[in-house]
């Protein structure tokens, strides 16, 4: 469903209670803004080919606008794990941690000298996400989390204002940290855009708007991925991708390794390698191009020597500790669900590019080997008619892609 509306010149969207900040509605850049709504159906409603069904949509959008221009333009920055099959969540685990890095090299190039101020966030996972935290690292010191949702609900995805804007300086690293509970799943979950896959993203609203950086993600390097699975080397150019070594795995496809891996006994080593191994920083502008100078970056987890300290207590009420008070007021969110939902080496080298061009997922979809619901649930097969997600889901949910988010990512700024 798509709706569009014409705009007048010199208008800005206002953010309530932020009298000096607005999002520019510049008719010289775009004559229309677009709201797009995505729908997802449950397994018992998911048939192929699709059958038309009457549905009622009560979603909507409220804009506050003014012809009185504000002194600051606002922008949107996406921080997190790039949606990709390399984002692997093992099955049968109550606590799986994934981290998406916005490295300091990117904020150093993009942010103004005085930094930017984050004043609202939308934190997003899919069905098995349980917690999301937006961390801030300055040099080797970890500051208070900018935002932390300890009880996420994937049906509730809205921007939420911080009680006070948080300053982020050039060179600061931002980390979107997500915790998943995959204990009800019998097969791995891969990263991706569909609801049967997973994601780890934080969309941050900030001011003043800078024109260099809109997407600041990371992606585990290929060596990190294969090492986390006990693989030493892949067969170059193979499709489907096959394992060359160690000898006991020689000839096995990467897909088979993903399905048959002993996650119960190897989960800890897998988690360590994925969190401490190398990754590819992805720092993109509004023109959907890498920022100059960031194309060949290689990233690793930060070496933090100083962390924030909070006094453990039964309640924050009446606390005289300044850090506790700020932490409580600024960034702790708890999402209450309104519905009961049961949930069942070198970085980015030539070999790295080869495996993406071979496309593990599409290669598996073309295979003539019959696949169980386990294979389908990990997103490695392309036939929607056999998809059987574990557990029930709501009858329907709608993702509202907020106008600000859509415009920021699709319209080039100059």
Automatic annotation (TrEMBL):
Please report the stretch or stretches of sequence annotated as the Copper type II ascorbate-dependent monooxygenase C-terminal domain.
73-218
One term under GO cellular component:
extracellular space
Keyword match Phosphoprotein: no
Q: Which Pfam families match?
A: Cu2_monoox_C
UniProt GO MF annotations: copper ion binding; dopamine beta-monooxygenase activity
Q: Does the keyword Magnesium apply?
A: no
Q: Which residues cross the membrane?
A: 390-409
Q: Which UniProt keywords apply?
A: Disulfide bond, Glycoprotein, Membrane, Transmembrane, Transmembrane helix
Q: What does the entry give for GO biological process?
A: dopamine catabolic process; norepinephrine biosynthetic process; octopamine biosynthetic process
Q: Which PANTHER family match?
A: DOPAMINE BETA HYDROXYLASE RELATED, MOXD1 HOMOLOG 2
UniProt record similarity statement: Belongs to the copper type II ascorbate-dependent monooxygenase family.
Protein name as it appears in the record: Copper type II ascorbate-dependent monooxygenase C-terminal domain-containing protein
Task: Supply the source organism for this entry.
Answer: Anopheles christyi
């Amino acid at each position: 469903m798509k709706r569009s509306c014409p705009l007048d010149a010199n208008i800005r969207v206002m953010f309530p209670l932020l009298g000096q900040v607005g999002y520019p509605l510049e008719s010289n850049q775009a004559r229309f803004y677009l709201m797009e709504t995505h729908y997802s159906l449950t397994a018992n409603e998911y048939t192929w080919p699709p059958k038309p069904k009457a549905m009622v949509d009560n979603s909507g959008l409220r804009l506050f606008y003014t012809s009185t221009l504000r002194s600051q333009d606002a922008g949107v920055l996406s921080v997190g794990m790039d949606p990709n099959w390399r984002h692997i969540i093992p099955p049968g685990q109550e606590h799986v941690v994934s981290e998406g890095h916005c490295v300091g090299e990117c904020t150093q190039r993009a942010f103004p000298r005085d930094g930017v101020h984050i004043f609202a966030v939308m934190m997003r996972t899919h069905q098995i996400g349980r917690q999301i935290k937006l961390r801030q690292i300055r040099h080797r010191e970890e500051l208070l989390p900018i935002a932390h949702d300890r009880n996420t609900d994937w049906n509730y995805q809205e921007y939420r204002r911080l009680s006070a804007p948080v300053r982020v300086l050039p060179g600061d690293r931002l980390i979107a940290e997500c915790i998943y509970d995959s204990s009800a799943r019998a097969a791995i979950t891969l990263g991706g855009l569909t609801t049967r896959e997973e994601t780890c993203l934080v969309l941050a609203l900030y001011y003043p708007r800078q024109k260099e950086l809109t997407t600041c993600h990371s992606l585990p390097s290929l060596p990190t991925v294969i090492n986390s699975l006990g693989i030493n080397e892949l067969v170059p150019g193979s499709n489907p991708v096959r394992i060359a070594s160690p000898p006991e795995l020689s000839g096995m496809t990467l897909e088979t390794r993903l399905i048959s891996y002993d996650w119960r006994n190897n989960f800890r080593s897998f988690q360590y390698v994925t969190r401490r191994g190398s990754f590819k920083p992805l720092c993109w502008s509004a023109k959907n191009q890498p920022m100059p100078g960031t194309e060949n970056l290689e990233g690793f987890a930060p070496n933090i020597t100083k962390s924030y300290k909070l006094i453990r207590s039964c309640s924050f009420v009446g606390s005289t500790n300044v850090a506790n008070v700020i932490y409580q007021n600024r960034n702790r969110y708890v999402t209450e669900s309104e519905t009961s939902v049961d949930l069942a080496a070198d970085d980015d080298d030539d070999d790295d590019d080869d495996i993406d061009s071979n496309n593990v997922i599409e290669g598996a979809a073309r295979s003539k080997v019959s696949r169980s619901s386990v294979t389908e649930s990990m997103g490695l097969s392309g036939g929607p008619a056999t998809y059987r997600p574990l557990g029930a889901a709501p009858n329907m949910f709608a993702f509202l892609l907020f106008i600000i988010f859509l415009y920021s990512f699709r319209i080039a700024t100059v």
